[in-house]
Amino acid sequence: MDISKKLSEAYEYVKSKVSTSKRLENASYTAFLVSLLPIPVVSQSAAVIDRISSDANAKRDLEAVWIAISKANARVAGQEDSIARIQEIAATVNFNSTIYNQLNSILSAITSAIANENAEWEVLTKNWSFQAVLNSLVDVDHASIAAINHSHNLVQNTQIHAKKTQLLADGNSSNIVDKTSFHGKDGSVSMNAIRTQGPIQVEGASIGFGENGMIAFGEGGMVGFGPPQPRPTTANGTCSACNRMITVDIRSGVPTQIQCPYCLAILKT
To answer: Phi and psi (nearest 5°) for 259?
Structure first.
């Protein structure tokens, strides 16, 4: 990702967190710290920000680095929070190897501590919004991707390593999952051009459908389930080409493509 884009995303993300938290200050410095993480902004930033704002030792260490940055470049202390201020902070750190090494050591300790805990990763999009997770690697215990109230998530070119992943889409919302794989202790599931609605759970090599849980494969096609079925063997769907009902064997997971037995159309999943 382009560094200027990541700085911008980090600033917008942190600014929203600062406005709702009484424990967070100095949005520019916090956003700069988030931009240093070797992951997309959405991936683990919430956990890092929470650690920065609540852990006394981490807060003390980072405040000491901030004092060193301010002494090295007096301009940053007098600037208002902005992307320009983040860039000034970045330039100061990059030209001072002592500060750079100290800062990376602190962040590495924070991310390592979080990784050793019972980690959770959440993407929550609501109220007529859209969010994308692109080209990412997520490694946590539990993952949750939710879209609520006319909202949509796109998860593309991503690997999610988790014991359990919950996909939820409610209130005219959907999750679009493309070129993405879910890896658990007992296997994995890949999804390509899949749209989900309702509650769906991926665990190992199995897909569980909660009440009104649905997946779509192929333009216009949809497979729906009623009460929770932890391991369904077949699914009935409608061919998007001829509109006839077809049965799909999903004992080994969702197939990568399906051929309609009536019109012979190939529906890619």
So the answer is: -105, 125
